[in-house]
Amino acid sequence: MNKYELVVVLSAQIEDDQRAAALEKVQNYVTRYGGVIENVDDWGKKRLAYEIQKQKEAFYYVVNFEAAPDVPAKAEDRIRLMESVLRFLIVKKEA
Question: Which residues of 6-19 are buried (b: 16+ CB within 10 A; e: fewer)?
Answer without folding.
Answer: bebbbbbeeeeeeb
